Amino acid sequence: METTKKDFELFKSECQIYIDKFELNNYRMAYEWKKMNDADAAITSNQKGMVATFAFNKELSWGNLDYSMSKIDFIKSLAIHEVIHLLLGRYVWCGTSRFVTRDETREAEEELVRKLERLIK
Fold it and tell me: Based on the structure, what is the number of domains in the chain?
C-alpha cells in the first residue's frame, strides 16, 4: 500500500510524541520518506554523536501484522516501535561495544530505569 505525505507527517508526529514522552530530545532527529525493501519503518542512530534517523517506507507491506488494523493505527504502531529502539539504543550500544566500561553500562542502564520509572507512575 502506497503511503502519502500525510502518512509520513503522521509517522513523524507520532515519533515526536514518544520522543518527548521517553525524554529522548537529547538526540538530533532526522526523518526520511523513502523506498525500503526490508521494512515498513526503521531507525539508525549514532550513540556517540547523539543523532537518530527515522525512515518511513513509501510503500507499506504490513509485515506480519493483523490486516484488520487501520492504516493510521499501523503507522502509529510503527512510530512507537522505532522510538522504543531509540530508547534502548544507548544500552544496546554499550552491550555491543568492544571498549565500554562496566560503569558506562551501568550508567546507561540507570538512565533507562529512571525514564521507565517516570512512565510507569
Answer: 1
* pTM, to two decimals: 0.83
Domain coverage including residue 64:
5-88
CATH of the domain at 23: 3.30.2010
φ/ψ bin of 76: left (φ > 0), alpha (ψ from -120 to 50), beta (otherwise): alpha
Q: Using one digit for the tens of pLDDT, what is the confidence trace for 10-44? A: 999 999 999 999 999 999 999 999 999 989 999 99
